[in-house]
Amino acid sequence: MYKVLIIDDEEPSRDAIKILGDWDSLGVDSVLEAINGKMGMELVRAERPDIVLVDMRMPEMNGTEFLKLVTQEFPDLVRIVISGYSDFEYAKQAIQSNAADYLLKPVNKTELNVVLQKAIDSLKVKRKKETESIDANISLNMSLPKLKEKILMSIIEQTVNRHTNQEQLEMIFPDNKNNSFGIALLRIMNLEEIKQKRFNQESDLLYFAITNVINEVGSDNFQCFSFVNPKAKREIIITFTYEGVFPDEIKSLSISFMKRVVRKLNELFGIEVIAGIGDISSDAFELSVSYRTAEAILNSVNLIDLKEAIFIYVLHKDSFESHSITNRMSLIKSALEDSNQSTITNILYEYTHKIKKSGYFNIGNADRSLLEFFILLQDIAIEFGVQQKELSNDYEAALLTQGTTLDYTSFEQFEQVLFHILHYYSDKIKSSIKSSKNFNVNDIKEYIHNHYFETIKISLFTQKYFLSREYLMKLFKQEFGYGIHEYIQKVRMEKAKELLNDSNLKIQTISEMLGYSDKNYFSKAFKNYYQISPSDSRLNQGQIEPE
């Protein structure tokens, strides 16, 4: 919609224009009035109309003065001059002021609307161009960081070709001949807590806030670009470009910058982070090395004695093998089967106590331990009959449904996360074991004997008894020495042999009675089972295939 301003000291002239204008069809929703140029300028400044129709002869500020002033302040305002036949000087002024058109008094309806339509059409074209320009800028501003992120990740992951991607590199590092490059990694230790408390569970908003802080802290000595690691949601990757900085200054500048970032994030949002700073190189393609160094530094940070926030070296010590939880899983499995919660708790406490006593347990070890514990308990849960659909492949998502997270900022919190994972699976397994105790495996056997001639699927029993496929088949085999499919085949073949003793039954009929739609398929199954065809079996019994 459009807004029009009429400036004329004569009220009848203003009324005539208001009456003659086809405002609705033109898309004009507001027509303003002013009695002179001075009042007109005040309205232009306050209301920002799209089109102004201005009379040239007016008191206080005439049309000439108004046009000069409005052209300076609002050059994009569409100006239409109104004047009498004899005012050639005014027409000249209108041309000099780049007026869109010139109307003579008394105003004619047709001419007025033609002039207004031309003005509206020019505004539409202009708005379309502005919209396209804004959209293009928005698209560019949104896509360039994503493109930069994509290129940087390809360098970090070493999936980029140095020669074929030189142009892309120059796009994100325009002048990289005399520059140095490096990476720092931020690990968010309390991600879920802050996301819930401060950002209404909005991850994108949290990441936006963090990267904004990093950019605002800034430095005159280098440029930085930060983004979330697409493969590790707790990790922010920061790339540094140092220009004209001596190599021996770079490390201290980086540490100072990261300290400011860490402090600012904590002050503003309560975010707790640790940071590792990687190697510096004059080759942008060596950012992959810098990333791996920073990652190794972060993974080596001692969770048991976490005092600092910025790290620039690796603790060359690995305790994962000696602290692996795998060799304790058989004990945990037995305790879970007996629903002995105190035993399970003691096993886990003994494990964590041993770690703490060693004095060193790095964050890389902690991450791997949690993942290992999750996978092992997942397998045990399935073995105990928990259905796959009840379990999540994303163990953090599973914990979040229980109101807990994988956040840990200390070894004590890591220990709590371990127990949360254990309790999650312990409850699932306990429910499954309780359900299986109310289940009699003989029910499946009886069903097979009564329905052997039908298509029998394992899902029929898993849905009926709320037990996992693996657990159900394990129970059946333990009880009868056969898998369920094997037992169905056994019952069918024994019934086939029995039916073959009746010489009045054709093999085709027997095949159908056993649930085989194809006689040849039945014959093949019989031969595979007894090493003899149905026909030969009858011949051995001295029978002839009935006509």
TrEMBL record:
GO biological process: one example: phosphorelay signal transduction system
Compartment annotation: Cytoplasm
GO cellular component, one term: cytoplasm
Keyword DNA-binding attached: yes
Residue span(s) of domain HTH araC/xylS-type: 442-540
In-chain residues carrying the UniProt-annotated modification 4-aspartylphosphate: 55
Gene Ontology terms for molecular function: DNA-binding transcription factor activity; sequence-specific DNA binding
Domain Response regulatory: start-end pairs: 3-120
Keywords: Cytoplasm, DNA-binding, Phosphoprotein, Transcription, Transcription regulation, Two-component regulatory system
Database matches in InterPro entries: CheY-like_superfamily, Homeodomain-like_sf, HptR, HTH_AraC, HTH_AraC-typ_CS, Sig_transdc_resp-reg_receiver
Superkingdom to which the source organism belongs: Bacteria
PANTHER family the UniProt entry points to: HISTIDINE KINASE-RELATED, TRANSCRIPTIONAL REGULATORY PROTEIN HPTR
Protein name per Swiss-Prot or TrEMBL: Response regulator
Organism for this UniProt entry: Paenibacillus psychroresistens
